[in-house]
Each structure stands twice: as C-alpha cells, then as structure tokens.
Amino acid sequence: MMWRQTFCLILSVIFTGSLSVSWDMTVSPVVYVPRGEDAVLSCSFTHPRQQSYSGKITVKWLARESNAPPFLICSIKNESTAELCSISELKHSVVGDPRRGELSLLIRSVHLGDNGTYFCRVELDSWIAKIQKETQLYVTVEPKILSLSVVEASPGSDSAPRRLRCEAEGHPLPTITWLSASRSFMKDQIQTSKVGLMRLVSWVPYLEEDVFTCRVESRVGGAERRYPAVNTLMIAALTVCGLIVLLLLSAGFILRRRNTARADMSPVYENADAVENHRLQDSDPPAEGDGELQLVYSAVSLTHSTSSQHESCQSSSRQQEPSGVLYSPVNIQ
Prior knowledge:
The protein is α+β, with helices and mostly antiparallel strands. The chain has helices spanning about 1-20, 230-265, 270-285, 305-320; strands at about 25, 30-35, 40, 45, 55-65, 70-75, 90-95, 105, 115-125, 130-150, 160-170, 175-180, 190-195, 200-205, 210-220, 220-225, 295-300, 325-330.
C-alpha cells in the first residue's frame, strides 16, 4: 500500500513537472490606450495536448490583485461548437477562441478608472492545472489646456494683485511651462498645484501689457495657448484699420462735396468748345488790316411799281441810319 502511494506521488511529480515545462502563456506587458477608445489586452496560451484535449477550458480575468475574484469567466469545451464568450453589449468580453489558445480581453470605451493591473488565467479541468500572467493597462489622455484667464488675488494676499491662471489636464500628468518674450520668471513667481488625478493649475504674476504662452507637455503629446489670444490682437488691429479707412472715406466724401459745389456755381455748356470757338471767331479782326467792323442793313422792295415808294423808303432809312451803318437796297422780282 505504501509502495503504491509512493509510486503515484513520484509519477505525479514527474507528470506535473513535464507539464509545467511545456505549458506557456504570452501577454502584453503594457498596453497604452487613449481615453474613450476600446482596449484589447492580448493573452494566449499553449499546452502539450492542445489538439487532442477534450476537456473544459476556463478563462478568467482578474483585476488589481492576483488572488482577487475574477470579474470575467468564460468556460467552453475544447471539442464544443457552441458560441464563444464575446458579448457586444458588455463592457468586458473575451476576444478570440479559447479552443485555439486565444484568451484576450476586450474593454470597451476605457476611462481613467480602468487603469491598473490585470491578470489572465486559464484552467484545464481534467489536468487540474492552471497558469496565470499579468498585464498592465495604461489609459492615456492627451494634454489639453482647459482654461487660461486673469484672476484677481484675494484681499490680504502677498502675491501679485493680478495673476494669469492656466488649468490643464492629461494622463500621464503633464508639465506646465510659461513662456514670455518680454520677461523671465523666477521659480518663486510660478505656482503649480495638482488638482485631481489628471489636472494641474499654474499661476504667474500678470501686468496689463504682458503677453504670455502657457505650454503643457507629456510623452503622449502637448498643447499651448497664448494670452491675450491671437484673435483678440487681430480684432484690435482690424478695428484700428477700420477706423482709419472710415476717416479716409469721410475726408474723400467732404472733398467731393466741395468740388461739386464749386462746379455748380459756374455755367456748364454741353457744347462749351463750340461756343468758345464761335466767340473767338466773332472777335477775330479782318485778315487784311485793322479795319473796324460795321453793321450792314438792306432795304428790300418787292416790285418796281413805284419809284416813289422806293425812294421814300430809302430816304426814311437814311434819315434814321446811325453813323457807321451802311444800307443796301435789294429788289425782289
């Protein structure tokens, strides 16, 4: 009886030792996933009789502690054709087919609370054997500036009366750097404190003419913001330019009104050139000398019926003729 127990113990040690040598599991040491996306923690295993094994395969995923109760359990017969343990409605599910050694964990829409250590475990019932390895999930948040504004110091405070406050978030926690082209900072002028798991707040003294840049950086990215914002400076510049243009337009309008008023005070002729030429022609002297211009009148008679009428007309005309006026009789038959 004693011999049989000893033989079984020796056989068990030999069998278990050979099993432990050929048993293997592979996981990803660290998995980085941005917040809000799906994470896959890869896990796979092999065993010496994987193709011929017909027992039950049980997949268990644990979190935080290696001996914690599993939050996901999936059991399936190696020779079964049943559905797998992947359910789309659940936050956690197994990705792949455990019958082929695929045990990966899918976590949908990860958040910062999902950070931590996870353990992948597989159990084979008939062999009374199990193996387990750990993997790390790291949820990242790209650095982002949440606010950048000027705040008034509380009464009685020893700090500057006005401070520029920059609040940022990120995971891993970013660093905040202040940049200024006009001045440099002493270490005691910058105050930075941690707010929550992934937020930082930093202050610097602020004067009205200062222009600062708050920059946040981490190994997953960076961001920066300027105060006053570039848009504010552009709006101010555009406002000044608009006022200048308005003044120029007003000045041009006034000058145009003045020129229009002056033009209305002098007569305007459509044929001004023709009138001017005609005036010059009328004033030109005779071509042959300095003779004076004389008016010429013509006495017109319709018939030769009576010479007396002609003579009376001629004599009356002569009596009334002014000096320097010539008369010429014209007879019309």
